[in-house]
Amino acid sequence: MRDIRISTEVAARLSAAHIRQLRDGPDPGVYQCCECSAPGDADAEPTSVVVYAYPGVVNVVFAHAWCSDSALTWKDDPSVRAGLERVHVLPLMFGSTGSAALMIAPYFPARTSDFQSNSQIRRWLEDGLHLVLSLDALLEEPPPTPGWKAWLVPGDSPGQTRLTIRSRLGSPHEPITVVDDIGIRVQGAWTRAVKATGKIALFAGLTEIHKLPDRDPMAIMDELAKAFQAGALTCGLIEADWIEL
């Protein structure tokens, strides 16, 4: 049996079905330790369940047992919340016309307190992204999404680009930084497409793009298709500014 460590206070925040699922598997399987960021394997290594609880939101994450005990953290610390809302980013070329695209996925997929829906998906939809409703939509340009914008500047090392994405621009609400000045590596064709069109096709969902060994198109499409089938994939065509330094 797997060695999944769940403290009493953490168990009180989880349903009996969710606890049983964690103990029996297959999830979480391979995970990223929330303490050291190195990969962990719940099927082979002692694993602690760590819960970050906020008003209306519960984040269930995992750690090597030697990195952290199973624990519940309850506070509304903006710095911790920002850490939990980090995303993985994967740039790719999209469609038959060779458009620039980005896939983003949360480091720590957050669940609402009833564990029935996902807080990131809900927020992306509320901020204007569109739910992907068919597999055919993965081959088409997403609908325009006002209020979202990407800024790109050359990075510190050759081939690197710094990326920031914000949402809720021009709305009565305070803008949200979705991607905060992270470094990505893009090909020349991707850069030229962004400069020529001023647009990026954005796909935001509950994918495992961080586990893809390379940018194999079939593996990427498989991840997008799995997220679509789970109702956990959104999209939008967003504005993009390339800033030359």
- Low-pLDDT runs of 5+ residues are 112-117
Structurally, the number of domains stands at 2
Strand proportion, as a percent range, falls in 35-45%
Largest sheet at a glance? 8 strands, mixed
Mean of pLDDT:
84
- Helical fraction: 10-25%
* Rg (C-alpha, Å): 19 Å
Q: What distance separates the N and C termini?
A: 55 Å
- Category by helix and strand content: alpha/beta
What is the number of strand segments? 15
Number of DSSP helices?
Answer: 6
Categorize the overall geometry.
globular
Order of helices and strands: EHHEEEEEHEEEHEEEEHEHE
What does this structure look like?
By secondary structure, the chain is of the alpha/beta class. It has two domains: 4-82, no CATH class; 86-242, no CATH class. Helix content is 21%, strand content 38%. It is built from six helices and 15 strands. It has helices at residues 8-11, 16-24, 78-84, 119-126, 188-197, 217-229, and strands at 4-5, 30-32, 39-41, 47-54, 57-64, 71-74, 87-94, 99-106, 111-112, 130-131, 144-154, 160-167, 176-185, 199-205, 233-242. The strands form three sheets. Strands 7, 8, 10, 11, 12, 13, 14 and 15 form an eight-stranded mixed β-sheet that branches. Strands 1, 4, 5, 6 and 9 form a five-stranded mixed β-sheet that branches. Strand 4 and strand 5 form a beta hairpin. The longest helix is centred in the C-terminal third of the chain and has 13 residues, at 217-229. The relative contact order is 0.15. The model is unreliable at 112-117 (pLDDT under 50).
